[in-house]
Write the structure tokens for this entry.
Amino acid sequence: MTRHKLSGGILLAVAVLAATASTAPAQSGMLVDQTYSSPAQATERIPIPTGDPGTHGVVTGIEFLILTNNRPIGNQIVAFRGLIDSQGTITGLPGTYIGSGVPALKTDDLGRTGYMPGYRLTLGYKFDDGSFVYGKVTSNLAKSYNASATLAAPFFRSRADLADTFLVAGVFNFPPEFGGAQLNTVLDDTNRNGVLDAGEGTLTYGIWNGASVMNITFKQWFNEFEVGGRLPLFQTEYSRIYGLAGGRFDWFMERFTWRTQEYDINGNAGPRQEAIYKNTLSQRMYGPFVGCGHEVYLGKRFAASLDVTAAGLLNVVKERAKYELGDQSSSGKRSVNDFTVVPSFTGNFNLDWYPIQGVQVRCGYNAWTFFNTKSMDDPIGFNFGAIDPVYRTQAYRIVHGVNVGLAMFF
């Protein structure tokens, strides 16, 4: 406590005692109790968010959040420019690559990370001794990243045979349902009549061989559910320290989607010529948390607080990878469950303003850190028969952003 704050506190206490011998009941905001002095002039009521509260009641709060998250995905090549002579009809050797082989689409093309809005709802009950129990829900909207590659090569540069206007990816072990269009190139239509005749077609077998459009999308969500309590530990005239404890559920949901569309020589496409790949990584973390907080009255109806907590969470990891046709008539999938332990630390700094009794306006900064979570290093498993994308352990992950909100005490 600085000498200035101590002197201000003594002068304020003397003024209050000289004006009245009683004080008004305490009020509470989102996470901060308010005790109001009662000077002789009833028009001026000075909130001091310390001391012993004098009443109990329900506390509700709603906050608007802007959060950003790591984008936990590696840099995997998805597709190349060109096509493969699957039957050897074009080159005389089955499996010969035709084209420049320049990477056309990578997961790194998804772009930079960004911010998304969210919300936090709080409902609690404050007791006469200043202790407080609450439930809290935090959620942010899904952040989506996208990238695409089409038959239009950069600056329309291609070989004389226009091989680089096609896209190819190394998917293998797929069933015949994913064979794609039979008249995919003009070389398939040997009679040049635009109709599949006997002995024609399937020179570029597979939807991913000689495709025209590929699109990748990565979406991620973050949610938290918390039930806890706050217990006063130590307080002075201008500040107080309190303990925090409870249970927490944190949930990271991430989904990678890859869509491949193949057109025939007549420009037609349909769900039977569309392949969709999805990789979903769900991490649900459960565990207790403990921490403490420090609140300081700044004067002029303002207070500042800092809360820090530590948690040990059991991470239930669900890995789901799946290929399917556009009409969902055929598919292949892989499912794996895993369990890890995730240490977590959080910090919340807030500036609070009490314009009137029972109302609290708050703005601040929030940070959640997690250690030992999972991420998609190579999200695509190209072996259809044994889909095996690569996941890795991510040493450090952070979700952070700002909050602005309002709380009321009833």
